């Protein structure tokens, strides 16, 4: 209710409605005095205006903190705090809560790679075809188009150069690499072999072929070395094939076209088009890890010039020192190379046979563990039990084999080739059985093995008076890795078919 002055020195409450002569809405009326000749309204706190009719907005100069909402009141305001904040001005933040974080939270993998934690460190698991700490490089491309190709930056190739790549295909013919200009050269796939063709344009083209075939669908390394007026071709780290001394040093100039997997159809490639056996078609398959003078090429910065080139080729790169084996649609397990272990084959394995306990036998490594191969007459897990084979085998007849005693003292038959059954009484047909096995070699004190399992055909079965023997074989070079860190390449004969032949 407004307060009015109705007489000099007299104060009373005005009844409603206000009497005549009390015009102040939210204040009191002060008549003029000797010192103040003009009558006026004195407003209550929070109001202003000539007749105290204005409610002041106290939020204009509010001090609410942390984004709080100011709500105006009479001669003041209230702060509505955000969730977790408190205090008259919302000045108190919520209590700190330490969230459990992963090293991958702030680690960004590229190209759809998955971040995994390995030894408390973030690691990017790259999808097929990509590499680099964050899978930022595209290093594998798949050529499926008829006229597809990729143009490389030839300016990186010096007069003395080394170009290496890995190829995987099941096709017989195609263009792997082509260099144009005044002395064109080409790496071609011809009838499953790698062919190097060089044309100085002043004499007929010079050609050399690899002994190795590379059209089995597996990755093979191909290396081209330009050095001291020579051109050398190396396939699968084998013996170099050289074109001999050339009239001049082959070189790739800054403006020389350098094509991978094919060539543009509009380019005049005289050296590549001579002869009826020249493979004019592009390469169909995968090309992986192209290096020019040991610099890994990033295909992401080199867009394909036509359709039919796609990243990756469904290969697996997560196994650092091993091979991938698919177990589900999107899951693989690693089969590690000799000397390596761990889920990703990235841990060097110790020899489990060091300090073995095979008393009367030989230690045989089986992955991270070992088994004991007992000497004749001994058995048991540690070959510490002597077997009395004479008494155990006396009543156990082996028709086409030899009786042995197991570790548990039980007799069994070890059949001759071509026979089977519990007592070797059944004659098996002569059929070739394909098995995949690691080929091993002993070099001094070092044990060596092929980097991957090799498919071979074992000839087993009966042929009456004849023997079950290989009827067709093929020789191919394989790389061996040794426990002392060395490596070498050796030609291995693989049996392909079996049949009955006279015994040697």
From TrEMBL:
Alphabetical keyword list: Disulfide bond, EGF-like domain, Glycoprotein, Repeat, Secreted, Signal
Domain CTCK: 430-504
Domain EGF-like span(s) in chain numbering: 55-91, 100-136, 349-384, 389-425
Segments forming domain Laminin G: 139-313
GO MF annotations, alphabetized: calcium ion binding; heparin binding; Roundabout binding
InterPro entries reported for this sequence: ConA-like_dom_sf, Cys_knot_C, EGF, EGF-like_Ca-bd_dom, EGF-like_CS, EGF-type_Asp/Asn_hydroxyl_site, EGF_Ca-bd_CS, Laminin_G
GO BP annotation list: axon guidance; negative chemotaxis
Cystine connections: 81-90, 126-135, 286-313, 353-363, 374-383, 393-403, 415-424
Identification of the protein by name: Slit guidance ligand 3
């Amino acid at each position: 209710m407004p307060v009015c002055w109705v007489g000099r020195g007299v104060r009373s409450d005005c009844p409603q409605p206000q009497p005549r002569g009390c015009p102040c809405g939210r204040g009191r009326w002060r008549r003029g005095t000797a010192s103040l000749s003009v009558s006026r309204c004195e407003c209550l706190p929070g109001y202003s205006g000539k007749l105290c009719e204005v409610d002041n907005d106290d939020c204009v100069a509010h001090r609410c903190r942390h984004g709080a909402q100011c709500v105006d009141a009479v001669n003041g305001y209230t702060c509505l705090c955000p969730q977790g904040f408190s205090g008259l001005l919302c000045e108190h933040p919520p209590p700190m809560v330490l969230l459990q974080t992963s090293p991958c939270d702030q680690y960004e993998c590229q190209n759809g790679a998955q971040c995994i934690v390995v030894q408390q460190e973030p690691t990017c698991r790259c999808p097929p075809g990509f590499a680099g700490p964050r899978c930022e490089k595209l290093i594998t491309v798949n050529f499926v188009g008829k006229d597809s190709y990729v143009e490389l930056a030839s300016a990186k190739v010096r007069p003395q150069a080394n170009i290496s790549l890995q190829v995987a295909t099941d096709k017989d013919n195609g263009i792997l690499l082509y260099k144009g200009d005044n002395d064109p050269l080409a790496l071609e796939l011809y009838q499953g072999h790698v062919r190097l063709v060089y044309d100085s344009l002043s004499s007929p083209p010079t050609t050399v072929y690899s002994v190795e075939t590379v059209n089995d669908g597996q990755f093979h390394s191909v290396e081209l070395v330009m050095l001291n007026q020579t051109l050398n071709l190396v396939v699968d780290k084998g013996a170099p094939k050289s074109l001999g001394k050339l009239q001049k040093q082959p070189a790739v100039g800054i403006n020389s076209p350098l094509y991978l997997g094919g060539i543009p159809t509009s380019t005049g490639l005289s050296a590549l088009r001579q002869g009826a056996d020249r493979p004019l078609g592009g390469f169909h398959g995968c090309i992986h890890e192209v290096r020019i003078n040991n610099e890994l090429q990033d295909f992401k910065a080199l867009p394909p010039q036509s359709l039919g080139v796609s990243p990756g080729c469904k290969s697996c790169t997560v196994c650092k020192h091993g091979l991938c084996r698919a177990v589900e649609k999107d899951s693989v397990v690693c089969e590690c190379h000799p000397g390596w272990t761990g889920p990703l084959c990235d841990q060097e394995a110790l020899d489990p046979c060091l300090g073995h306990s095979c008393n009367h036998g030989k230690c045989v490594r089986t992955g991270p563990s070992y088994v004991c191969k007992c000497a004749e007459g001994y058995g048991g897990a540690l070959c510490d039990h002597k077997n009395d084979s004479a008494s155990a085998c006396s009543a156990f007849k082996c028709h086409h084999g030899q009786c042995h005693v197991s570790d548990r003292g039980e007799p069994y038959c070890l059949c001759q080739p071509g026979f089977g059954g519990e007592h070797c009484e059944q004659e098996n047909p002569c059929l070739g059985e394909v098995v995949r096995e690691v080929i091993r070699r002993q070099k001094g004190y070092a044990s060596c093995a092929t980097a991957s399992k090799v498919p071979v055909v074992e000839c087993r079965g009966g042929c009456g008076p004849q023997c079950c023997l290989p009827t067709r074989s093929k020789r191919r070079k394989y790389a061996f890795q040794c426990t002392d860190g060395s490596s070498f390449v050796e030609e291995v004969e693989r049996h392909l078919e079996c049949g009955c032949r006279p015994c040697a």
